Amino acid sequence: MSYFFKSPLDLEIRFEGEDSRQQFEVKSAQGKKDKYPLYEDGESVVGEVTVRVKDGKRVEHTGIKAQLFGSIEISNGQRDDFLCLSHDLAPPAELDHSETYKFNFKDVEKRYESYKGKNLNVSYYVKIVIFRKSADITKIKKFWVNIYSNPTDLKKSIKLDIGIENCLHIEFEYSKSTYSLKDVIVGRIYFLLTRLKIKHMEISLITRETVGVQPNQLSDSSTIRYEIMDGSPVKGETIPIRMFLGGYELTPTTKTNLFSVKNYISLVIIDEDGRRYFKQSEIVLFRTKS
Amino acid sequence: MADTMSTEEQAQLLKDAIATINSETQLMKRCLETRGKLMDALKHASNFLMELRTSQLTPKQYYELYIMVFDSLNLLAGYLRDTHPHHHLADLYELVQYAGNIVPRLYLMITVGTVYMTTEDAPVQEILKDMIEMCRGVQYPIRGLFLRYYLQQRTKNLLPESQESVQFVIQNFIEMNKLWVRLQHQGPSKDRAKRTKEREELRILVGSNLVRLSQLDNDKDYYKTQILPIVLEQIIQCKDVLAQEYLLDVVIQVFPDEYHLYTLDEYLNCIKDLNPNVSLRKVLITLVNRLTDFAKREEINDLSISDGTEQHEKFKLDFNLFDKFWFYINELDKSRELSIEEIGSLLESVSRLTLAYYPSCYDNIDQLFKFATDKIKDVDPSSTVEIEQDFEQLLLTPVKLYPKLLDVLKLSNFINLLNSQTLKTQKSVSLEILNKLLLQGIKIKTVDDVTGIFKLLRVIITSVDKEQDANGEESLDYINEQEKLAKLVHLVWNKDTNVHANLLTSVKGVLSEGNIRHTYPSLFFNTLRLARRNKNGDLTNSLFKFISRIINDLYRVGLSDLSFKFYLSSAVIADQIQAEEFAYEFFAQCFTIYEESISDSRSQYQAIVSISGSLQQCRNFSRDNYDTLITKTALHSSKLLKKPDQCRAVYLASHLWWGVEIPALGEEEGVTEFYRDGKRVLECLQRSLRVADMCMDSGVSIELFVEILNRCLYYFIHGNESISIKYINGLIELIQTNIDTLSQENSVNENPKKHFERTLEYITSQKDIDDRFQLITW
After folding, report:
1. Residue B385's domain spans which residues?
2. Does residue B301 have a pLDDT over 80?
3. Fewest CB within a 10 Å sphere: which of B22, B213, B700, B747?
4. A229 vs chain B: nearest CA distance in angstroms?
């Protein structure tokens, strides 16, 4: 942050046990990796802020406040703070030496996962504000939130029977329709009829984020492609599918009234003339602890 | 597709691919040498593996890439093995599966997986199962084949001795075969031939599985129940000619012969379900030949003799091998209508088989021959050269392999089959038999053998020389064949003279159909030999009559010279065994031939000399008969055309009246009584002297005079008193006068003069020994 005036105070925010806390890596736009301390839903966010006075100056303020925000930013500039907590750290006073204040947001309910997408960011941060008669002095510090779930009602396998008349007839099966992010997709494709000259077959894992409502809806998707068959099988051939998910950066399926992230698995057959035939099925991804 | 590219483009592509593999391999190596850069190393490995995704290269070029990649992956595998447990191989096995492309992914997976298998407590079976299952993802034939070949090579030394391992190899084999067969049906049909060729190049990849399978430790029963049926099932199911021929051949070659014997039913059953275009030569005859060789190697002598000797302990068969093959041949014939070519070669090999296993079981071979005869009835045996050859081989099998050649006669259908062949085949088979008989010098001792063998040789006996030229000169080949027949006649022999005589009668009967000019002479001599050996009077009669018939036949075909000589020889023999009547008759025949057919003056002279010589040896004539014969001889002598011939013949005939001892007969001068008549001798000499004198050429006269002088001296020495000193002296004087006369004309010939001088020298030398010679003067 560049201020017109150089700030007379230094603020340093530290979360409690920050060094030992699990960090979450996020790729930034520049390709660098940013690390954030990781929190989960319902966990207290506790820490302290140290205010240092520069060069023995005296600084007057009208109070110090700690705030915790959860907000959604959309690329069109829209912004929504779905979470805003605050409490006072100090009454108005004059600071002539460095002081440390503790903040404690107890059992904070965090509805969404932190998310960094194309058109949408979900982010959490702690903001310290020192109120002054002139410009206030603020400092924020981001943290990351992962929501863990452990759905018990894992839906049954996906089984589909599709075809093009007199040309292709396949049955395929994925063992489940709901996967944890570290799971492995296992399945098989059974060729009942193939008159196509297939060049290869792949699985596409598509993550689609959608923001807003029609007609101002913004959506974007990212795809991971994984070849599962080379060449053209004959009738009766069974091709196995196995795709480990753990190595990819995937997003759990999320749905809010503002935005949604959905995951699809798509079976794509590419023939020798480059034509693509595909069948897409939605799968639910969730995050589990550990 | 590969066929859309030119060869140059492909070569360039290959070059580029090789360059990429080389550089990525170098990069991978460097990363492996640096700690903590395994991920980058894998990335480079994945990069060079991308080259194996190409569809543009020929199988050979692809193989070249494969070899390079194999070496590079070997480096990686070596590193992983050495650095274990720094890299937890189970995790690594999962990690490499993130590769987005399936071909590189699976190569890496197999590389890591096989290293993982070598670690302690590794779930070997699970890894194997997983790898082979995932390989299904590659359905492109060439890439799939090489990938699975890689799997096979990598796991080669890691398979535990277990049934799972066997099933693993079999499964890989099945999948590879499917891919291999599928290759045939890819792309445009105009390239069919090219694809067949490509498949030929790739076949070893598929076959290597069977080789591997044979190296695993399997017992016979497991092979029979769990391996062979599945392998055969796959071979049948694929319906592909190339695959069926090649793979069955591999099965036969890689598994031990004991197993084949043990699983004969399974194998033979499968044959009839094969694609009808499969060459039986390749899939069945190979097996038969292997089993035949096996019998030789194991020194199995004769399974048909079940006497429980030690060789049977070493080798036992609880079924009859021949019957089994016989059964399946019939089955096969029913189910797919065997072509005559197939039958020919098949029977040939089965016949060798049965000869190896059951040499004394003649029925087996005979059965085959009958089958062949029935089959060949419907076709023209000369329709192709191959059929001819196959059947020739079939016929030659027992000829070549029977230790006793005459056993061939026990095959009653041999002759039928032989007769159904082309003349060329018949001839070559007959010749082979003939050669073998001669080579082994097998004596033919029974009438059945005679009829049997000569039946087999009938084609040679009755053959006509096609190459005979305009002058009636016979070709060398023909003469050779006939000569061999003649030699064969000499092999007819039996200790019992009666039987021997019967044999000869049969031989004559057979040979009379052919060219007797070549064969009768040896029959004649064989008979003559028998006549000499024979002591039985009745037989003697019939033998000489037989001989007479032989000579007569020969005479009738115009061989008068030969007949004459044969009569003469017979006469001498007849005399020797005191069959005077026959001897006389034979001499009489000689004279008849002489009178009827010998017209050339030179031959006449020779004939007379021969007769004289023969008569001289005869001892058993009655005086009258002998007189008649020798007088006739002298008469013929004096009637010769040329004077010198007359002269010589007459002085030679003079000897007929002056018998001398034949030491071989135990005769002795002074003891034995000889037929001698000195006066007749003198008469002869005088007559010849007159004739000599009548010669126009004085040189010839002198020569003849000297010769007569020599005769005189001979008789003088041998005590013929009719030849007096006076006579000799007169003769000497006559010669001298003649020489003198001629010397005056200066035209004396040196040779008679020298002969005369040598004679005189002889007389001089004899004077010292014999007093009588003192009186000879000149």
Report:
1. 279-304+318-420
2. no
3. B747
4. 4
